[in-house]
Every structure is written in C-alpha cells, then in structure tokens.
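hi! just following up on the protien thing from before. the input was this:
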Amino acid sequence: MIKCSECGYENIDGLDYCDGCGAKLNAAAAPAGEGGGAAAPEAVAAPSGEAAPAGSAAEAPATPPPSEVPTGEIKPPEESATAAAAAPAAEAAPAAAAAGSTARAKLQVVRGGRKGQEFPLEDGNNLVGRWDPETGAFPEVDLDQDDPEAKISRKHALIRFEGGKITVEDIGSLNGTYVNRQPRLMPGNPVELKTGDEIIIGKTFLKLIVEPVS
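and the predicted 3d structure came back as:
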C-alpha cells in the first residue's frame, strides 16, 4: 500500500495519484523501524579503575576571579532575559504574516454546464473532477452537474493554492486539461495560473478569478 502524504489515504500499489485527494504519490515509505530515526547514542563508559564525574558541579569550569572578568561585556540579568524573549517574538512575526492569506480565488463556469456557477478554491489542494460513487470522494471542484456527456474524468486535474501561488496540473485525465486554449497539459507538470486565465476541462470552460482580501 502507498500512503498519501497529503491526506493519509491508503492507496493500492502501482498508483501515481491518490484516490482520496488526487495528489501525486511518492514511493512507498519504508516500514516502521527500518531506516527510521537515528538511534540514541550509547553512553560512554568511564575508563576502568577511574571514577565517573560526580555531577555537573565537577564538570563546570571554575569561576574566574573578579580581576579576570573582561569589563564592559557583562549585561545585567534583566537586559539579557528581555533580549532573549524578544528575539523569538521578532522572528515569529514575519512567519505569522506570511501564513495569513492575502487573496481568495475561485473558478467560474463561463461556458458549458451551469454558466455563472462558482467554485471557491481552498488553501492547498483542490481536486477537479466528478463525484466518484466507488470511493464516495467528492472533489473540491465537482463538475458532475456540468458534464452530462461525462467528458470530465472522476479525478481530472489538481489545482494547488499555496502561498499566493496557484497552479493547475492534469492528473492523467482521458480528455485532457487546457489553459488559455494552449496545447494540452502534460500530466504531472504543474502550470502557474493568474487571474483571468481560462481552464478547459472536457467541454466546460472555467475562468480563474483572484480577489485581494480586504
């Protein structure tokens, strides 16, 4: 079995894409216990006939006399504690800002199917396709009602919305995925999208709309 790193779904061997979310599968992970985390280092025994150090007091260097302490380099305990607490907070601020979403995106049906129907895109993976009765999986962009001729595969394409970047990738569909009426996308090769781009899935035309978050 191959476990999906994105959703945890257990897939049968030989699949390239996850049956649960459509993400590309990596090679099966090694069984637990084989090549796992590094083993804990073994304790070093004291040489025969010698007593081991009797605790941290024996290992700590002797405190130099006051005359040997360099002047002008010692910070008061209060200042040192304040600086240590401020450093992690300063580093966390940019990370928190980056984590916040600055835009929202959606796909809008502009031709074929329910014209005007919109599908908001979630952060991360968005599977485009049709409801699969065998697995019970619902894609984030479910075009089942927009595809009476079944031209769209159950798992047709994958749209990834991450870090403000949006890409589309064909995941082995029967009739292909097209962007701005360019040549058919090669499966497994993501293409970056921008607002206003047109995606053709089967006979359904979808327009990408990206709006800033106010």
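The helical segments are 56-59, 77-99.
The CA atoms of residues 130 and 144 lie 5 Å apart.
cheers
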